[in-house]
Amino acid sequence: MSAAQAVTAASDGWLGAALVPLLAMAPVLWRVATGGPRERLVAQNLAALAAALTLLLAAQGFGRPAYVDLALVLSLLGPAGTLVYARFLGGVPPARPVYWAAVVAVPLTVVPLCVAAGPGRQLVKLLVVGALLVAGGVVTSAGSRIPADGAGDGTTAPGTADGRGSAG
Question: The pTM is what?
Answer without folding.
Answer: 0.79
